[in-house]
Automatic annotation (TrEMBL):
Top-rank taxon, per record: Bacteria
Pfam families: THF_DHG_CYH, THF_DHG_CYH_C
Family note: Belongs to the tetrahydrofolate dehydrogenase/cyclohydrolase family.
Known partners and oligomeric status: Homodimer.
Gene Ontology biological-process annotations: L-histidine biosynthetic process; methionine biosynthetic process; purine nucleotide biosynthetic process; tetrahydrofolate interconversion
A molecular function (GO) term: methylenetetrahydrofolate dehydrogenase (NADP+) activity
GO cellular component term of the entry, any: cytosol
Catalytic activity annotation: (6R)-5,10-methylene-5,6,7,8-tetrahydrofolate + NADP(+) = (6R)-5,10-methenyltetrahydrofolate + NADPH; (6R)-5,10-methenyltetrahydrofolate + H2O = (6R)-10-formyltetrahydrofolate + H(+)
Name of this protein: Bifunctional protein FolD
Domain Tetrahydrofolate dehydrogenase/cyclohydrolase NAD(P)-binding per the UniProt entry, residue ranges: 140-288
UniProt KW keywords: Amino-acid biosynthesis, Histidine biosynthesis, Hydrolase, Methionine biosynthesis, Multifunctional enzyme, NADP, One-carbon metabolism, Oxidoreductase, Purine biosynthesis
Binding, NADP(+): 166-168, 232
């Protein structure tokens, strides 16, 4: 059986179109332009690409983009001062600091300095607590994107067995909370899980978010299961020529696609949904800040 390929690129384009519609209504009906501030410290090449794409897509959906690119030597105090200015800027509805930050800066301190109402990454401890207790929160973008694709594919997720491989604060843990919120039976698996293959084999839904290239082989997948691959790993691709690289996920795509009922590819699966959901979260934050009705279908 060949799996259905869940096209994250097309799904993300659809989310962006919905966001653009809400933005134009906010402008026309209320004279409000949602604004997103993205802060990058240092020169990590992958982060520079992500930040550039965030700015470009923010403008494409009609929102205001405020990009702050800071030198790698920026101190934590200087960064906190910028966050404070953005927290108090009424034209900024969403703020994020691109991760990872340089070693001399404490990421948690920075994240928790962001006004939770403007925390469009959903990483602030208040939003983590709200999500964990089933209350209205800002929801982390990558897990939100995975949830949207799963709901679209399955309709209801109620009663399904879900295994999340990986326990990071930005993907694994919030993903598990969202699946629990949709009434899945959820297992979080990690490097110390006994019998990882057996655990994964029981799942109707597998979300792989470990950051280890092609770690999950097809024979771990229950026939017909849905595989959501969050991994983005750059590995050597000698078949493309000397020194060439390619992107692969945490799942071995070829063997998993033979067994799964549906699967997200890498690239073109979960990745594009991350930025689309960031734009969705910015519109949501803007509506909440102005006491306006929130867009439907763009949050959990
Ligand atoms: N503050 C944050 N930092 C980071 C986050 C985040 O959500 N907030 N997530 C990642 C990086 N990221 C967005 O920031 C991100 C990663 C990947 C993609 C994407 O579209 N990937 C493409 C492939 C792109 C490529 O060729 O490299 C795909 O999978 O198709 C978008 C955003 C860490 N930091």
């Amino acid at each position: 059986m060949a799996a259905t390929v869940i096209d994250g690129k097309a799904f993300a384009a659809n989310v962006r179109e919905k966001v653009a519609g809400h933005v134009s209504r906010l402008k026309a009906d209320h004279g409000i332009t949602p604004g997103l501030a993205v802060v990058l410290v240092g020169e990590d090449p992958a982060s520079e690409v992500y930040v550039r794409n965030k700015g470009k897509q923010t403008v494409e959906v009609g929102m205001a983009s405020f990009e702050h690119k800071l030198d790698a030597s920026t101190t934590q105090e200087e960064l906190l001062a910028l966050i404070d200015r953005l927290n108090n800027d009424p034209s900024v509805h969403g703020i994020l600091c691109q991760l990872p930050v340089p070693d001399h800066i404490d990421g948690d301190t920075i994240i928790n300095a962001i006004d939770p109402a403007k925390d469009v990454d959903g990483f602030h401890i208040s939003n983590v607590g709200l999500l964990g207790t089933g209350q209205k929160s800002m929801v982390p973008c990558t897990p939100l994107g995975c949830l949207m694709m799963l709901r679209d594919h399955h309709g209801s997720l109620s009663g399904m067995d879900a295994v999340v491989i990986g326990r990071s604060n930005i993907v694994g843990k919030p993903m598990a909370q969202l699946l629990l919120g949709d009434s899945c039976t959820v297992t979080i698996a990690h490097s110390r899980t006994k019998d990882l293959p057996g655990t994964v084999r029981r799942a109707d839904i597998v979300v792989a978010a470990v950051g280890r290239p092609e770690m999950v082989p097809g024979d771990w997948i229950k026939p017909g299961a849905t595989v959501i691959d969050v991994g983005i790993n750059r590995i050597p691709a000698p078949e493309k020529g000397e020194g060439k690289m390619k992107l692969v996920g945490d799942c071995d795509y070829a063997s998993c696609a033979e067994v799964a009922g549906a699967i997200t590819p890498v690239p073109g699966g979960v990745g594009p949904m991350t930025i689309a959901c960031l734009l969705a979260n910015t519109v949501t934050a803007c509506c909440r800040a102005n006491g306006l009705e929130e867009p439907e279908g763009l949050t959990a």
